[in-house]
Amino acid sequence: MANISSRIAENYAHVRQRMEAAAARAGRSSAEIKLIAVTKYVSVEVAGLLFEAGCRDFGESRPQELWQKAAAFQSRDVTWHMIGHLQRNKVRRTLPIAALLHSCDRVRLLEEINRVAGELGIASRILLEVNISGDETKHGFAPDSLATVIDKLPAYGNVNVGGLMAMASLHGDLAAARRDFTRLRMLRDELSTQLPDGVDLDQLSMGMSRDFEVAIEEGATIVRVGSALFEGIEP
Ligand SMILES: *Cc1c(COP(=O)(O)O)cnc(C)c1O
């Protein structure tokens, strides 16, 4: 475990350095960019080593895994993020755990989050997931459907939308990823010219292990990094 521990600490420091360098290239401060460690590949024990290395924001893409890991981390000061597809029947258990739900990808989920948050007496924080690459296998709102969704947000009083989330196409290279991220930022800027009261789109959750530097150069405020943090570790 000692070896693994030092390897994790190195990986974490290296990702942080790469984030700083990317931010500097874009004339940004790395302090304005949040790193979420995606722990879906590793055990609670290995995720714990990342906590010891200084990481405080963790993300999971499957609700059951989120519930289990969050329970195991209960005594530690960790902020959890739900980043994957969420079925409506899992909203009730997920909302109280996830400080931010990145993956609100359809109106019926938005409605359910609003309803359940009302019943629980909590205000949920979410991002709208956008299928920016148009990949058929991807979840998310179509870019040209977002204006209509956003116009309706004031009707969902228990939902706080804070921005957009997307993934770059799985099929393209880094240049294609950059185009996807640029498109998401421009879409955000366009939508931001006429937002209803109480809605803001300040957060852009984009960038994973293979493309987080490009995402930061294109304006990401949150990157979701998994495999790069666990390089050299047996799963
Ligand atoms: C798994 C996952 C990530 C992290 O992926 P890596 O390529 O391992 O960094 C980020 N976002 C989402 C939505 C994921 O499912």
Instruction: Indicate the overall shape.
Output: globular
Low-confidence stretches are none
- Put simply, the count of helices is 8
Cross-sheet strand order for the largest sheet: 7-6-5-4-3-2-1-8
Termini separation comes to 13 Å
The H/E string reads: HEHEHEHEHEHEHEHE
Total count of strands: 8
- The CATH homologous superfamily corresponds to Alanine racemase
Largest sheet: 8 strands, parallel
Report on this model:
The chain is α/β, with parallel strands linked by helices. The chain has one domain: TIM Barrel (Alpha-Beta Barrel). Helix content is 39%, strand content 17%. It is built from eight helices and eight strands. It has helices at residues 2-25, 44-52, 63-72, 91-94, 107-120, 146-152, 174-191, 212-217, and strands at 34-38, 57-60, 79-82, 98-104, 124-129, 159-165, 203-205, 222-225. An eight-stranded parallel β-sheet has the order 7-6-5-4-3-2-1-8. Helix 4 (91-94) links the parallel strand 3 and strand 4 (98-104). The chain is globular. It starts with a helix and ends in a 10-residue tail after the last strand. The model has no long low-confidence stretch (mean pLDDT 96).
